[in-house]
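Minutes, project check-in

Agenda point 3 was the complex the collaborators sent over. CS summarized: two entities, 601 residues total, and the question is how they sit relative to each other. Sequences were read into the notes so everyone works from the same version.
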Amino acid sequence: MSALATDAPVAVVAPAGPRPANRRRMFNTVWGIVAWVAGIVFVFPVIWMVLTSFKQEQDAASNPPTWFFHPTMDQYAAVFDRNITPFLLNSLMASIFSTLLVVALATPAAYALSLRPVAKWTDALFFFISTKMMPAVAALLPIYLLVKQLGMLDNIWTMVILYTSMNLPLAVWMMRSFLLEVPREVLEAAEVDGASLITSIRKVVLPIVSPGLAATALICFIFAWNEFFLAVNLTATNAGTAPIFLVGFISSEGLFLGKLCAAATLVSLPVLIAGWFAQNKLVRGLSMGAVK
Amino acid sequence: MTDVITRTDEKTPAPVLPVKGGAKDRWVRRAPLLPALIFAIIVTQVPFLVTLYLSTLGWNALRPGQRHFVGLDNYVTVLTDSRLRAALLNTVWLTAGAVIFSMILGLGLAILLDRKFVGRSVVRTLLITPFLVMPVAAALLWKHTILNPAYGLINGIFGGQTDWISDYPKTAVIGTLVWQWTPFMMLILLAGLQSQSEEVLEAARVDGANAWAIFRRMTLPHLRQYLELGALLGSIYLVNTFDAVFSITQGGPGTATTNLPYEIYLTTFRKFEYGEASAAGVIVVILTIIVATFALRVISSLFRMEESR
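CS then shared the predicted structure for the full assembly.
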């Protein structure tokens, strides 16, 4: 009650008081609108892709563009008729298995570079990142020749191994940055209490880093799923991944815009979902854990 | 403040922690690292050594049985080849163009998103979406539904018959790359903006500094290392651009958008000049090492900052 009593006169006596706050609020509203417009402009090609995927081919290729139409699933049906499924399954296999392998290799390595560091941990850390910076083109030919020699061209396990090495540095760096967040005192307390290494990892480390582990896995999944360069050179019909399907799909007959958009939407969907979930950790993964 | 102090306590020991105990303890520490290390060495370093070896051979796969040692001839061929020089130049153009424009846009968007407004997290989600679209899908989407002269969205809305991809091939490729990479820059710069101390900014405002002065004198210097990091990581990823060139222009018209990765791809799988392709690959690695050295310096400085925090 007393608060009300003191507030009221202030508002009456000094109407100039709230003005700067008001102005700032209006300012923020204006900038908020600008941000919304920018966001919609940026996402518009994606919206257009999804819209087009629900059109009939004549509407998809019309000029001026068709804005209102009866949505149809025909293009999706056509894409499945063209047998996208094996390509999606290949992508799924390459991405999931390489992600599992990456996490299995990177997590212990990150542990040996953070919580119980080896002597030259910085050297090892920078070795990993330097492999990430090596362009794939420089290694393509020997990999191609070797894989051909081994009879493993157009084999999904080849892609699993290559995607593992592609994502390993990222995962090591990222996991390391998450492991550093485990408070040392808690670990030491567990050791003092007689917990074995396994127990302290299971009971102390894992619960703290598991969100980080999930984010690392999602980001590795995204990169493996989207990879094109190695896939286009090392796979064909057997082990072709989703991006290979998309490219092969173009060179065909007549109107294809609607089907193209349907296929593009389908192959992008897993990563869109993974990325939206991981968006808070995305920047950390992309910067190798340098930016939080 | 207490947070800062405790964190210093728990983080600084890591780098200086002496490895106690004998050889056994050292191996116990190393054991978890070894599988990853050995894997990385085998899969990434060995092929490169093979590339080095191949680059000294005169070897065209279409003429089997004619593999012979030619020393540095391939390097001479590659460095004097006008196609390759054009590809190098195109790589610089495409990379620089994409990095600079996505950086500027990303900075603008990051500043917008650094304010509080209704639906901020929704807008952020919208803005990162282009980055998540499969690069090949994005390239094809731009090529066919947006830039196509007959039924593309741009000509559809604004009229005209411009064939964007043939008339402005570099711009078309850069535009697509900028669309995809702006979210990346935005995320890094936004993290930079949000790591600024709100108290210091408030203090400057109370002292009567205007928004522009605060931005120039405080925000930009603070953002510098984030800008550097974004530019360098962006360059490392974008130097290797293949998807967009392959799907939008096939390096054309002529060689207008043929960058090094695409040129090496052509040399390897269209001309089958394995020796030359390897030499070009080695040159790309050397160029990348130059860029990467700077990148590593920036990353390790961020890294030290984080350690000492």
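Noted in discussion: The first strand of chain B starts at residue 57 and ends at 58.
Follow-up: revisit at the next meeting once the mutant set is ready.
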